[in-house]
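JOB MANIFEST
job_type = single_chain_structure
chain_count = 1
residues = 205
[input]
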Amino acid sequence: MNILDSVTEDLNWREAEIASIRILLSSTGVTVVQKKSLLRAAWALLYAHYEGFCKNTLMLFYDFIENCGIACRDLPLPTKTLALKGFFTDMRKMADLDLMNEIIHFENSHLAVPPQFPDVDTKSNLWPTVLVELLSAADLDTSKVVEHDLKLKTLVARRNKIAHGEHNFIEEFAYYKTYEDAVYDVMYDIALQVDHKLGSPPFNA
């Protein structure tokens, strides 16, 4: 299974689950109270799939890079920096002699070998600023996130209120749907970017 197949498979089950609530919301037998409850559930679910998809796709992205045979030195600068992040942290704690030894052997020990990436950390609240940082580290374009910045901020903020049991209601399906559309726009863009990135040099060399 190639990277696009894996990402598409992940996206498909998420879309199916989101659509199932949309079907319930469109039912003529739903009461006003039920509709409000369903919209709250839909909002929380939309956020969960937004965060889950972004995290899972980036995990697949880094897993592919780790196993494609590319050396760390050949990565784009932002991705190379991310792969070496843990080492840079350790370097700051080294004694001078150990540090000098690492510098001498840096090329063979760290740049000439396949990269190892840290876990994808969404910080449990995938604010657009966090997603921009994650995409930038992967050397991916962030313009779609910036375009939908306000909607993504609202998505996270209202999800937190719902998750904490606050009296926060989404009144109309049409309002909710604009957020669903924005999330899909971001997710589709990330999926296509990852496929294009990994199908281009240096990853397809």
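[summary]
The two ends are 19 Å apart (CA to CA).
The chain has a mean pLDDT of 92.
exit_status = 0
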